[in-house]
Each structure stands twice: as structure tokens, then as C-alpha cells.
Amino acid sequence: MTLLTKQAVIIAIIGLSTGSNLLLGQASNAVEKPPVSALNQDSISASAQKVLKALGEKAERAALDQMRGDFKLWQTAADQNRPEGLYLIGQCYVYGIEVIADANKAFSCFQKAADSDWASAYVQIGSCYQNGVGVAKDETTAVKWYRKAAEQDNALGEYCLGQCYQNGIGNPKDVVEAVKWFRRAAEQGEATGQYSLGDCYLVGRGVAKDATEAVKWFRQAAEQGDANGQSSLGFCYQDGRGVSRDLVEAVKWYRQAAEQGDPTGQRNLGYCYQHASGVAKDHAEAVKWYRKAAEQDDAIAQRLLGWCYYKGIGLRENEAEAIHWLREAAKQGDADAKSRLIVINNRK
Fold first, then answer.
1. Which of 5, 178, 237, 347 fits 249 for a cystine, CB–CB 3.0-4.6 Å?
2. Cα separation of 234 and 15, whole Å?
């Protein structure tokens, strides 16, 4: 999986995505701040922990609701230069919650929080520099901030630093060093770090190949609700890697990933429905899941959906739609899609 895809996985905590326009938020009615005397420091910390817990569990909607409800509290804390308040108000500027979304103001809040040695703010600043959000893009500086967070045992900072090493972002590529940082994040219970470490073990990247160890880490990530971990654990069950082959268990994990919107899980669940692998054959259901993944630019799903249109599997034959989806897959370099387009053209 590419770093850009992984960036989408950590959007909930970092709050930044290269595919989103942070300047299109809507302002709500003006919010009256509570008097400073009403500020309870324990309540700020408790509120922040609820948000971070929800985000860590990928419950982004619950986290955003918490942010809306506690905006006044955080604004007062930010006015007092409390790092928790600055950090969370920065998130509000990212999401456009009770304020107009503004990347520059978000970055300024994160910088002020970082001045108080708030490690989570270091990760935010690193993400801003990596993606050019609120500041000029500078991957070398991004790595500097990720490292600063990682060296304070911030699990997300460790994961992000590992991703930079794995992909050669901001410093030379070093897959062994990547494994080191993924492991540190994973051992702290960071789900994306657990998934990434499992993936390294599965393919033997930066560490000796060990499917059993891969399954161990995929399972820990999956049980925390990480969609990549769920999809990968499903694959291991389907293929019998590091665990006894169990097609029903594979479907279970694919479904959990698919229902979170993971395109790999959606595509693999569709395949299971098409081929009666761990579930009753249902071509219409297969097409449904292929389409969801294809619409997220999953090249294999685009090719499979295109072939379903061509062969009339789960829907009526439609050559125009078949060619459309096969071309979409071919644009991404899918060799099988290119071959099938040649087959269709030769039959005309």
C-alpha cells in the first residue's frame, strides 16, 4: 500500500488529507466563550482524551460530535495557551467546526501547541509540511517533526517516521529502519503501526518473511477496527498464510473492512460472492462490492466490474460500460485489463 493510501488511514488523527480542500468550510453562528473562571482543567483533559480515543478507534463521527460540543471549552483553553486547547482548535480549523476551515490558522495553532512540547502537535506539523498544508511543502522538515514526536514515544509519530523510511520520503529509503519504527508504534498498540509491521513480515520487507508473525500483527490491528488489518487478515485466512485456511473467517474480516469503505476489502468480498468462497454465490452482491471498490479507483475492481458488464455477470451485458471500466483499470497499468480490451476489440 502506498503512503498516500496510508495517509487516508491516519486522517482521523492527523486531520489532514492531500485530497481535501481545507478552505471550503462553513462558519456557524458566533459562539460565546465561557468566562475563564468557568474553565475546569480536568474537564479539558477529559474532553481531549474522549476525542483522541474516538479518533484512535476510527470513530470519526463521534469525535467530530465531541469537538462540536466542547468547542467553547477548547477555545477558552486555547486563549490561555493551553496546548490541548490549541491542538484541538487547530483540528477545528482543519474540519471547519464552528469556524471557517483555514489551513494557515490550523498550522499556527499546531505550532503554538508544539511550543509547549505537545508531541501530538509535532505530528500535525510534520503532516502539514509533508503535504504542503498551511505551509510550503518540505518533506525533509516533515521528517524532522515526525522524528521529534517519535523520540518522545508518540506512537503516531513513530508510525509516520516509519512510513517515511519505507517510502524514501524526506530521507533515504531504509526498510530496516522503517520496521524499527513500525515495531515501536505497534508495541504501543497503534493500529496502523501494527498493520504496517504485519505487512513487512508478510512480504519480507526489512525483516525475515514470517507469515505467522504477520497474522499476529494483522489480528491486533484488525481487532482495533483497522480496515487494512482486517482486509489483510482476511487474505491470510483465504490463502492459508500463517493460519489454517478458513474461507468463512476470511469473508468475516473482508466484510468488516468493506463496511468501513476499504476498497481492498470491498473487492475481495465481491470476489468471494462471485466464486462462492466462504459465502453463498451471489453475482449481484459481487457486482455491488466491485462497484464500490472501483469507484474508489481500485484497478483490479475496475477490471472485474468491467468483465462482469461484458459477460453479463450479476447485471445485464453492456459493452460500453465494460469498455469504460476496463479502460479505467488499464489507465492504472492493469495488464489484464489491457488484454481484455484487446479481446473485445478483436471480436468486433
1. 237
2. 28
pLDDT tens for each residue of 173-194 = 999 999 999 999 999 999 999 9
Enumerate residues 6+ apart whose C-beta is below 8 A from 134.
Answer: 22, 103, 104, 105, 106, 107, 108, 128
- Contact (Cβ atoms closer than 8 angstroms) between residue 52 and residue 154: no
Contacts 24+ apart (CB under 8 A), 84-89: 84/44, 84/45, 84/48, 84/113, 84/118, 85/44, 86/110, 86/112, 86/113, 86/116, 86/118, 86/121, 87/48, 87/113, 87/118, 87/120, 87/121, 87/124, 88/47, 88/48, 88/51
Predicted TM-score (pTM) of this structure: 0.80
Q: How many helices (H) and strands (E) does the chain have?
A: 20, 0
CB 169 within 8 A of CB 130: yes
**What Cα–Cα distance (Å) separates residue 336 from each residue in 9, 228, 329?**
28, 25, 9
Q: Are 272 and 258 in contact (CB under 8 A)?
A: no
The residue behind cell 503512503 is 3
Among candidate residues 242, 7, 246, 42, the one with its CA nearest the CA of residue 142: 7
